[in-house]
């Protein structure tokens, strides 16, 4: 949140990584982690959300779950 506030103060667009998860499947863990990072990004006032739909962050981001990849940007609309 502090980084977002500094970016807003100096007039820069704020970019955050949101919608990331350590889960390799679209399960409850993936939904919870995606929801938390998206809601924190929205609460901080970020302008740009990136890297949505990447799964397995603890495994070196080797996985892309296409269900999660297509559902995450739709959550950002609301």
Mean pLDDT: 75
What is the total number of structural domains? 1
Indicate the overall shape: elongated
Rounded to the nearest angstrom, the distance between the terminal CA atoms is 20 Å
Helix vs. strand class: alpha+beta
Describe this structure in words.
- The model has no long low-confidence stretch (mean pLDDT 75).
- The strands form 2 sheets. This protein has a two-stranded parallel sheet.
- The chain has one domain.
- With 78 residues, it is of the alpha+beta class.
- Strand 3 (54-55) and strand 4 (63-64) form a beta hairpin.
- Helix 2 runs parallel beside helix 3.
- It has helices spanning 2-10, 28-44, 66-77; strands at 15-17, 48-50, 54-55, 63-64.
- The longest helix is centred in the middle third of the chain and has 17 residues, at 28-44.
Task: Give a brief rundown of this model.
GO terms for molecular function: methyltransferase activity. The chain has 78 residues and is α+β, with helices and mostly antiparallel strands. It has helices at 2-10, 28-44, 66-77; strands at residues 15-17, 48-50, 54-55, 63-64.
């Amino acid at each position: 949140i502090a980084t977002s506030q500094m970016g807003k103060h100096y007039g820069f667009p704020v970019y955050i990584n949101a919608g990331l998860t350590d889960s390799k499947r679209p399960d409850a863990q993936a939904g919870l982690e995606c929801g938390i990072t998206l809601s924190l990004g929205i609460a901080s006032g970020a302008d740009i959300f990136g890297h949505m739909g990447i799964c397995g962050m603890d495994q070196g981001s080797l996985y892309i779950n296409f269900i999660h990849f297509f559902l995450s940007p739709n959550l950002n609309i609301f």
